[in-house]
Amino acid sequence: MFDYIKGTVTNIKTNAIVLDNNGVGYLLYVANPYAFELNKDYKVKYINNSEVGTATAQIIEVSTGNYTFDDNAKVDFNIIPYEIKAEDITLSYYKVKYDGEEKKLTVTVVANGIELIQDLHYSVTYADNVDIRNDAKVIVKGISNEYTGEVTVNFEITDKNVLAISGQANN
Fold first, then answer.
1. How far apart are CA 26 and CA 76, in angstroms?
2. Taking the CB of residue 141, how many other CB atoms lie within 10 A of it?
3. Cβ neighbours, 10 Å, residue 76
4. CA spacing 20 to 30 A to 38: which of 3, 19, 82, 151?
């Protein structure tokens, strides 16, 4: 058997596996890494960990291992939605020539390496996107259970010709 400690990492014994809910996800900590080896002495089983909400990480035995674990060797943790940030957003352009028409851009949102889908994961609205100004706005808002947050990204509507070179907008 092993010593199981739930919660914060304090007074760790030599042979202890700690599952800790750090408020953002789960932390598995082996107090003495020479005492237990992942996939040799134990495995971690996840329960309900594919959706936002409460999930469980449980230490389970390996059939060829030297240890057994009881059902209390588990901890609940929260899977929280990802909050969309400005650095996750790319606009098709950041400067465009004025022509009297409303400007709507192509907006791409990539969160943790995953390209999100507009109108499924996030919505796009605009403000001040018709007249000449340097603060026309694209507002991106997380709309699913998995993605939250609201970010405003500015772009410029100018009376000058705009030439795009290597993805950069220039006069």
1. 8
2. 15
3. 14
4. 82
